[in-house]
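User: hey, got a sec? need Antitoxin folded
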Amino acid sequence: MASVPASEFQKNFGEWHERIYQGPVEITRYGRPTAYLVSAEMFQQLWERFRVSMPVEQLGIGELEAIAKAEVATDQLYELKDIPDDMPKPHD
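Assistant: Yep! Here you go:
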């Protein structure tokens, strides 16, 4: 991923704008990332996958019922016991 100080980004916006088609551009200030510039296409892809997490206690009855009825589309049958206990845990 390309990285650029904010002052350089500001001076040469056109150059950095063109580079977003190769991948995201990290914009830094005092050596720390403060923003990322991505193409419109990448932003749309990220936005479509955006999810909000919340404690289960905040879910309503309708949401809980929908979760209980949900199924995973797969060609292979599985049970919860088939999932290994040592699966990587998401970071908090």
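Quick note: The chain has four helices and three strands. Let me know if you need anything else on Antitoxin.
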